[in-house]
Design goal:
Helix content: 40-55%
Strand content: 5-15%
Number of strands: 6
Oligomer: single chain
Radius of gyration: 18 Å
Shape: globular
Number of helices: 10
Order of helices and strands: HHHHEEEHHHHHEEHE
């Protein structure tokens, strides 16, 4: 493992404490199975498919927690460069602005600096995955009926971390030499979310390339990112600021 990737996995760089699965539980076994598939070099499209005979909710729960941990690590590597001065608005380029809304302080979609938005986002997700009524850890306790809907919202918000990191802080990832790790994590996330229809196409727009002549969706725009970022700069520069797509 390179020095850069050691930095990516360095616990001191973690934005939030990792959520772990209890050994001996079904979810712990599913987590090990999913990790083994990734480590074996199995195609990511195949790795995200629901294993035969396994419960969908368990499979989704394992991946949501895993993605939270991994994206938490990725943002942790750039958070010192994501400040209210450098990122006064939580955005993904000039066209996409993300506004925060919750059931407490921000009851209406509110524009916030990126680091404040990220703090609220991670706090909110942490509350969801630590809530036994939503992510039960005891055997025999069922998932709530709206579990998949809650996970869709979690994944939607986690995707926005990718958007912000890729478009505004990818230079730091490149300097660390962690480009391949971040790209693989994003590709894994993309294939999982789209395989199980857990994220809407409109949410994927900032990081999914469309062909202007045919308006067709293509593969995640990943490699090489240097060319992709240049593509986005050209594409985004064609939009005026009064056409911002704001999402809460």
């Amino acid at each position: 493992m390179s020095i850069a990737l050691k930095q990516v996995f360095n616990k001191d760089k973690t934005f939030r404490p990792k959520r772990r699965f209890e050994p001996g539980t079904q979810r712990f076994e599913l987590h090990k199975r999913a990790q083994a598939s990734l480590s074996s070099g199995l195609d990511l499209r195949a790795a995200v498919k629901l294993p035969q005979g396994e419960d969908l909710n368990d499979w989704v729960a394992v991946h949501v927690v895993d993605f939270f941990n991994r994206i938490n690590l990725i943002y942790g590597t750039v958070c010192e460069f994501c400040t209210e001065k450098s990122c006064p608005v939580m955005s993904g380029g000039p066209r996409y602005e993300y506004r925060w809304q919750d059931e407490h302080k921000y009851k209406k979609p509110t524009p916030l600096p990126a680091p404040q938005y990220m703090n609220l986002l991670m706090d909110w997700i942490e509350m969801q995955i630590n809530n036994e009524d939503i992510f039960p850890t005891s055997i025999g306790i069922p998932f709530p009926k709206n579990f998949i809907q809650i996970c869709k919202k979690i994944l939607c918000r986690l995707f926005r971390v990718f958007v912000h990191v890729y478009i505004h802080h990818f230079d730091r990832i490149l300097l660390m030499g962690a480009e391949a790790h971040v790209n693989t994590c994003y590709k894994h996330f993309y294939f999982f979310a789209t395989e199980l229809n857990l994220i809407e196409r409109k949410e994927l727009e900032p990081l999914v390339r469309t062909e202007p002549d045919f308006h067709m969706w293509t593969e995640p725009c990943l490699l090489p990112w240097r060319k992709a970022s240049f593509y986005f700069l050209l594409k985004l520069s064609s939009f005026k600021m009064n056409r911002i797509c704001s999402r809460e």
